[in-house]
Structures are given as C-alpha cells and as structure tokens.
Amino acid sequence: MVGYVSSPSTAVAGQAAPADASQSRHLRRTRLHAALAAPGGRSITTVYAPAGAGKTDLVVDWLKAVGAEPRAVLVDLTACATARWWQKPLRSPSWWPSWPGNAAELGRALHAGIPEQTGGSVIVVLDGTEAVVGTDFLTEVRQLAAGEDRLHVVLLGRHAPPDGSTQPPGCSADSALRGPDLAFTAAETATLCVQRGLDLPAAVSRRLYAITDGWVAGLVVATAALRGQPHKAEAVLQQLLRTGAGLSEYVMRDVLGRYPADLRRAVRDAGVVESICPELFATLTGRTDGAAVLTDLSRDGMFATRLDDRSAWYCHHRLWRAALYATLSEDDPARARQLHATAAGWYIGHGQPAEGLRHALAAADRSAAIRIVQEHGEQIRQASPQAAVTATAPGPWSPLADDAPLAHAFAVHRSVSDGAAAPPSAVAQPIWRALCQGDHAAAQAALAADASVVGRSPLQRSTRLRLHAVAARMSGRLNEAVRHADAIGETVRANGLVGSHDDGWARLILAEVAVQRGTSDAAVRHLDALAVQLWQSVPALVAAQQFQAALLCQQRHDDAAALHAVEQLIVDGDDTLLVPRWAARVLRVELLIATGRLHDADQHWRADAAAVPASTATITTARLLLARQPQAGIDPLLRPLLDDPHVSLFHQVELRLLMAHQANITGDTQHAAHLLRQATALADPERLQHPFRANRHMLGPTRNQLTPTAITPPAASPLSPGEAAVMRHLAGHRTTREIAHALHLSPNTVKTHIASIYRKLAVHTRRDAWHAAIAFGILPTDDVAPARSRELRS
C-alpha cells in the first residue's frame, strides 16, 4: 500500500511527498492486470509483496480499468482484531451482507443474494492478510470461492496467512503476484518520471531506479523530492541514499513493527553490512536466533531477501538499510563504530580482508586498519572489490598528512574501491588487456596455461572465472560463458559477495548472452538487476549496460535509437571502457549503413579501422563495400576468414550472411542458400540469433529470392493459432506430453499440430521448424517458451 506517503515521516529535504490523485494514476502497472483477472477459471488471486509495493493501488486501478467497481467489495483485515474475512467491509454494494456472524452464514447469504445482473463476478478484495492468525482462514476462503462461481477473491498482504488446508504448497488453484512482479522496471521508472514532469537524463533515471529497486513507495518519495528540486537531481539522489529517503520511522514502525523492540534494534544493528548470514548476524547482535529471524524477514519479503535456496546469505533492501544505518549513526554513533569494528574482525577471520579494511576504516580503528594492510595488503590489492553502498562513506577522522600509515591504509582502500574494470592481479592484467583489444584467442591461451583455482580466495576464484566467461562470450562459446557466469554466481552467493564487481560481470555476461540469443526479456531482467547491484560503482559495467541496450534497439530495428545511444557512449568517452573497447565504433558504422548515412559511415570507418582487429575490420569493410556497390565482389575479401580458427563464432556467421547476400544479388541463389544454411548450422548449437535479426534488412531480399525448395515455406500455408501456440514450445526442449500439459491439449492433438507445422514449413526437425518460423516472421522474434534445462533457463 502507498497511502502512507503523505505522512510527515516520509519528508525528504524538508518536503512532504504529496499523495494526490495524479500520483496514484501514475503508479499503474497495466502489465499486471491480466494476472489479476484469475484466468483459467480460477477464483482466487493472491498478491503478496512488501510494504509500500503498491498492492492496493494496483488492485484499485485494475477495478477501475475493467469497470468492476460497482461489484467490488473491499475488506481491511487489519481493522479487526480477529481478522475474519466476513467482517464489515470498507466498501461494498448495497446488496452485500453487512456483517454475517460466520463464514457459513456469509456463504448462504452470497448464494441467495448476488444479483444476476451484476455483469460479472463479484470481486472481494481482502487486504492485510498478514494480520490473519487463525489457520482456518484460507480453508474458508477456498470453500466459499469454490461454492459460488460468481465470486472472485483477491488476497492482498505482505505474506500469506497460515494455511490450515491439507493441500501442499504450490498445488492450489490460486494465481499469484509477488513483490518482484509489482516492482517497477527500469523502463517503467523512466516513464514514470516523464509522466510526473521530470525531464531527467538517462543516467539519473537509471540511478533513481537502482536506488529504489523499483519499490513503489521509494519512487513516490524520490519523485516528489526531485520535483521539488529538479535542477539538483544528483544531489537529491545522494541525499536520498544518505538518509534512506527519510524512511527510518516508517521502516521501524511499519516494516518491522510486528517484531519486539529488541529484535528491531538487532535488525537495525545488522544494517552496517550489505549482506548477512546467521553467523554474522549473531556476531553483530549477540543473538543466537539469527537463522530464524532472517528466515522470517525473508518470508515476509521485507527487510531480508535470500540470495538463493542453497545460500545462507541474505541481502537488504538498499533504501531500508540506508534508513536504518542513518538512524544508527545519528542516535548512537559509538555503537555504529563498534559494530563496524566487529564486522571487520569477522570478515578478516573469513578470508575477506578488503571488506575487513573497509569496516575498520568506518570504525575509526586506526590500529586495526594499519594491521590489516600490513598483513593482507597484497591480497586486498588483488581482490575484486564489493560495490558497497554505505549511507555514510568511511572518511578520515584525522589529518592524513600527520599520519602516514593511516594515509596508506586509506590509499589501499581507495585503490580497491575505485571501480576499475581490470582485475588487479599481475597475472590477470595481461589477459584482460588481450580481451579489451578483442584478442580472445590470446586470452584463452593464457587462461589455459594457468587454469588452476585451487587455493585461491573466493574473490580470486570469481575473478578467474570472470576472465574465462568474458573470453568464452567474446569467442561465441555462449553455453560455456553461461556456465562460468553461473559458477561466479554460486561463489558470490555462497560467500555473501552479492554486489561484488565479479557479481556484476556475471550478470552482464548473462545479459550479453541473452542479447545474442535474441531473448530480450531475459536480457532486460539481467541488465535491471545489474543496475541495482552495481548502480554507479563500476563505469565499465554502466557503459556495457548502455551498449547492450543499443544492441537490443538494433534487434528491434530501431536503428535511430541504437545509433543515438552508441554515439552518446563515444562522445562521453565511455566506449573505451567496453570489452572489447572498439565495439561501439564498429556498431556505429553498422547503424550508419542501416540508416543510409553511407558518407558518415565511410568517414568514421577511415578514422576507426586502424584500432580494430583484422577479421572485424575485414567484415566491416565488406559491409561498406556492399552498401556502396551491391555488385562488388567481396568473396575474395571474406573467403580467407572462413577457415580461420581465430575468428569468433559471431564473425563466422556474419561473414556467411554477407556472402549469401552478395551471392543472391549476383543471381547465384543456390550458393546463397548453401551459405545461409551454413550460418544457421553454426549458430544453432549456441542458439545464436543476433546476427540474423540485426541484419534482417539485408537478409530479407536474400531469403525472399532463394529457391522455394531450399528454405522458403509455402506462402499460402500460414500456421493456425493452435499450430503457432505449439510452435512456441518447440525450442524449449519440451516433450510432446509437456507441451500438451502446458497448452491443455491432448498429446495426439500436439502431434497433429507438429506434423502440420513440418508440412507447411517444408522441414523435418524441430530445429529447422523453429529457425524457419523465426526467419520468415511467422512467429514473433521474442515469442519463446521457457526451456526446461538449467542451462537454457540461464
């Protein structure tokens, strides 16, 4: 719920956040309305999310959008000590039973009283399910919903009420929305800013999203503060982070209010660290129930979020942690320093000296900071740092000029925390330089010569895995890149290193793979998660985010937007932070060609070609030649690359596409079809799609003019809706029975549809059917059903 935003406790920079009608209208998320409609005949919808996630606002907006307000009933379960769902509603139609004595009486009244002319289901919204204590609540709800087919129940709350049914979790007919569903995406955050009259630069909009993590209440407070000082956006955001957006009272009272005072203080004290496990919680607070407390907080989806099912570590919501840290620093600064000192000792004892040094400096513990640098200085310098976001950053408490050892400790801390992209290890730096130059073959050879990770610290292991993952991604070994990125994630989660630079690179690699595979939704999710975890600490990752966004625009054939993003990267000088650092320059030439600006493309390429590796330069030159002279013979230029083992998979596919296009122009359609099949066969094992989609303007004429027996499906045989639905699942490695279950069809019907698809597309395998459907636009390019395997999910 977001009704609290007009409270004085949410004032930021001396201004209260208004809660007017326009604010509510702008908080809508229409993409969630379909989930509230209880599809498939289900009569119960659940929406469980943290405080301030906009649950009530979402449901009210949905009721208005579907015209269901006249037949809606709103019940506030928190308004009654017994929290019974048949209690007196806040709002209801005139014929609704005012106050039945029990659930059975309500059921009888509903069965007899619901008018036939209601025009649809009666929607009962039960808000505040966290207030329910009795285990019979859900049983009664299900019984009443099942007994009246015109009744649709929507359960809202911070978590589910106790379940007294014998039905195992996850097997109910309830459809659910959770906190991550309700959170705004980065794109929605930017749209919200525009709707509220905030003309923010893209970088500021991304930072706003990163600070709030799309949390509705945080966005309400932040946008209100920005509207008050639109010309000081950076300063406002910094203040929001330092003070926790003025939400300290709200977090203690509303978010943690159901816990006793001593437990609230313990949670506040644990906020001195960015992520926490039960052992660290016990060390900081002296409590032995850390596992149960963190599990309960995670169950609420509130202050703690478990990193994964196997990890003992939890991370905090950034604004809430900042709010509590600010309260602790202001109310009891001595306690804050003591907790930092305790955390420093714990991290040193658990092999994370870089974190130990940071906390020692925050604790103003001169002797500990100097000792840590003396004993672990080299290991700290070789660490891949965490992107810690502390409300009050560690700073010198005495003149550095008068204290050389302390000044040195600060210098070591700064060298780790400056956010450099390159791993600091002397062994890793040459490998990273090779990757930045685009020489993935040399980087892979160096990695193979020193492949052991035994005996390394967790951060050293993840840094090594990062190098392997980047090298694999650059060469086109996407499956291998995903495996390495997953391994980094496992190391991060097992050691509580969420937010480390290597965690950011793992997320980036997964996003890059998703872009190359054409799964844009997955790419956006990874990029949004990257923005939240490393919101501004690593410039190279920020630049990479913008570059991947440009590639997504290119896939969607919005070449103008892609070109604008790439040119902005180059103007700002951030293109040199990319890996490889020439990637933006090559993409700019491609986009200039696609938009018909051949003169500009030629000029830029004359200036940029010298810095680009030979194979990439050759392919880009051939692209320019084809654009200027369609009859130009590019085969002699490209053919030597066909068998070059050092050419990446991306380039192997791309050069065949260029040669196919040129062959078709010259009338050799048989050779063009052969090259196109070669490109598809090379791309298929890694599920590579980007070269085909980015070059669709060039491949369209080629495909249309190829011999029908080669790869063109019969134009008079489009897929039926049922066949298209089955088509979505053919790339997901699902069995016929699984497809039938997902689509509520019989296996025989699915087999019939598959046979018809093969006949219409003139193919004989699932793989060929999928590629044909994508190639000829029979299926939307992002219309891919989820796959079963872990690798495909990644």
UniProtKB/TrEMBL annotation:
Q: Which InterPro entries match?
A: Sig_transdc_resp-reg_C-effctor, Tscrpt_reg_LuxR_C, WalR-like, WH-like_DNA-bd_sf, WHD_MalT
* Pfam families xref list: GerE, WHD_MalT
Q: Which domain of life is it from?
A: Bacteria
The UniProt regions of compositional bias labelled Polar residues, in chain numbering, are 1-12
Key words, A-Z: DNA-binding
> Which portions of the sequence form the region Disordered?
1-25
Q: Which residues form the HTH luxR-type domain?
A: 712-777
Query: In its UniProt entry, what is this protein called?
Result: HTH luxR-type domain-containing protein
- Write down the species: Dactylosporangium darangshiense
